[in-house]
Amino acid sequence: MHSDNDACPRLFPDPPALPGGASASLTYEPFYGLHEKPFSLSSDPRFLYKSPAHGPAFDALLAGIRRREGLIVLTGEIGTGKTTLCRSVLQHLDRRTFSAFVPDPFVSREDLLKTLLVDFGVIAISDLTRGRFNGASRSELSYSLYEFLDSLVPLQAFAVLVIDETQNLSLPLLEEIRILSELERRDKLLQVVLVGQPELRSSLSLPQMRQVDQRISVRCELAALDAEGVAGYVNHRLSIASRGNSGVEFTRAALEALHQGSAGVPRVINRLCDRALERAYAAETRQIASHFVWHAINDLGLAAGIHDRADKAREQPIVRTPEQPPAIEPVPIITVQVEASSPSLEEFTSEAELAMARPTSVPVPRSRSPQQWAPLAASLVLAIVAAVGVPAWYRHLQTVNNEVVATPQSPDPPPIVLAPLRPSVERADPEPVQTDGTGSPAAATAEGGAYTIVVASFTSATRAQQLVDELTNAGYRAHAVERDWGPPRGRLVQVNVGGYTSATDVERDLQQIRELPGGYQDARIVERP
Predict the structure, then answer these.
(1) Please, which pLDDT band fits residue 75 given cuts at 50, 70 and 90?
(2) Domains in the chain, CATH or no CATH each
(3) Directed axis angle between helix 109-119 and helix 171-181, to 10°?
(4) Range with the lowest mean pLDDT among 128-137, 348-357, 480-489?
(5) How far apart are CA 114 and CA 138, in angstroms?
(6) Secondary structure class of 140 (helix, strand, coil)
(7) N or C, which end of the chain has less CB nearby within 10 Å?
(8) What's the CA gap between 479 and 177, in Å, rounded?
(9) Is residue 39 helix, strand or coil?
């Protein structure tokens, strides 16, 4: 499956031949010891991965069909594997169960009856085009279906109907399906499974759908995979396609990138894995590092979705001290504070500079009337402007993946604050405490050189180590440094890329790191003393 950018020429090594021959549609698969496409978009029931969401849904559907108890409803977002799950359930039914799978919901009542008669083997397609059922009425088609279902009773057999994309069915057609599902003798003659997107639940909750909704005995919901589920899903499909002898491995950082890029949706995972394997095959490597996945995310235009989810995760505001309401009774003096927003300790080279950035208080007499207050406020603003002279750099707190991360602010001029001007290339703290990324002191990786790139800081040592792995796999000399900033920020684990002696090289890598899909546009250069 190569649906995107197929027009671009690719220079791939000639794939080795598989024993016994291989499909001509395989490209990178033989190189990795795969006998078929592991990440095809087709709904192959052999590749069903029974995740914590898919496993219980499989069991519930299979039990509901065997018990023949009312309607069954399966819902889930696009690409979560509903069709694959249903086909796998049908494969596990015994030979006395006749099944029909209707993938096209845009049919009339007559078309639905014709589809059932053909799938159940009652009539042939030629009978509909030029035989006795050509132009048959709804009642004639219904009679033939009822006659077939009734003939199953002496055989202790029954039939099951699965209708996909049911959210697109018209309400009259849903009512027709309800009538079919109520055909019974001692047991039901036709078990119906409705499969659709979450909008199906909304349709069934309408007042005119009460009769349908009340007859639903089993309701299942498929959710996206979590990070552990993504890893299990990828390894499961590789094992099936390689018949248990796969020659390819996704690194931990690559699997984490897959989870971020796909949001746990199996169909998107398939597309990303296929493209990542394609790129790794061109590089003739059997280990899939994270940068192959990030390139696949960019190739398929999915990077914007990662940023959208990160923006939603940042919707929770940072907790700040609530503003005090103005006093009703006049007081003799108030204090006006102008503060910088918690700059990093590495921005200062002396205690004198650090003292300059601390909050400054200016006592101002409070007047009883707005007319008397206006001249004093104007004088205060002019005094602040004269004292500062130029705007200062400052830092802001940014939440990434539900963690508080300290990143540098945009170089656009911020509001005037009482803080020293930070140079474009910063001075680093002498003798920082370095760790191995787990939060405990360890032998530090010697940065060397005159320049270091500060990528991001995290409250979680695990997330910092993941970023170190990603950058290392991408070819950068990355390591973690633990720093204690004091209250209110506390201890943070900072991820650095070091070892630069050339300003040109460090500027080049800085731009590349800022362009990575992980959201590191605020990375900056620090000049070591």
Answers:
(1) very high
(2) 29-42+226-312 (1.10.8.60), 52-222 (3.40.50.300), 329-529 (no CATH)
(3) 40
(4) 348-357
(5) 9
(6) helix
(7) C
(8) 61
(9) coil
State the alpha helices, DSSP H only, in 45-101: 54-67, 82-91
How far, CA to CA in Å, does 161 sit from each of 73, 116, 121? Answer: 12, 8, 13
Q: pTM of the entire structure?
A: 0.57
Q: How far apart (Å, rounded) are the C-alpha atoms in residues 393 and 384?
A: 17
Strand blocks (E) in 66-145? 71-76, 97-102
Element (H, E) at 171: helix 171-181
- Tens-place pLDDT, residues 461-500: 888 888 888 888 888 888 888 877 676 667 788 888 888 8
310: part of which helix (H) or strand (E)? helix 303-313
Six token digits for residue 2: 């190569």
- Token pair 């990143």 is found at 407
End-to-end CA distance of the chain: 53
User: Is the Cβ–Cβ distance between 430 and 368 less than 8 Å?
Assistant: no
CA–chain centroid gap for 492, Å, is: 26
**Gap between the Cα atoms of 184 and 187, Å rounded:** 6
Name the phi and psi angles at 226, rounded to 5: -85, -175
CA distance 517 to 431: 32
How far is residue 331 from each of residues 122, 328, 370, measured CA to CA in Å? 94, 9, 15
Indicate the residue type of 456.
A
